[in-house]
Sequence to fold (142 residues):
Amino acid sequence: MDLNQIPLIGMLVRRMDFLAARQRVIAQNVANADTPGYVARDLPEESFARQVAREMGGAGTTEASRMQTTASGHMAGTLSGSAGHPRPTTSADYESSPSGNAVVLEQEMARLAENQMEHSTITGIYQKQVQLLKAALRGPNS
Fold:
């Protein structure tokens, strides 16, 4: 059985792939910090809602992925209009260098740390899912 066929594990694998690609882009930004005219790049993130909809077989938000209320006392789900939109890759607080280079090492190091923390989190969730599958396959008598 291919573990990527399990929706949660498939999402985790794709997220780890995205984070690895983002790591390469950040490394290129840092490596080109002194290159004249180089502009820092970043990968746009896909919204979590879109990932869930794709895993459930739909292109948009499906009925199955919407928040459901089964009693009048339940709270309805909320969805902000800006949820899932990538943040800008440059800040107005920083300027380009005289050579035209727009890489700010402090921002790149912050992105690098954020990327590393997220990768560690996703890896931990993946490991726990695999442990749960192994426990289920072993059964209650082992």
Observations:
- The longest helix spans residues 105-138.
- The chain is about 45% helix and 0% strand.
- The chain has one domain: 1-63+103-142.
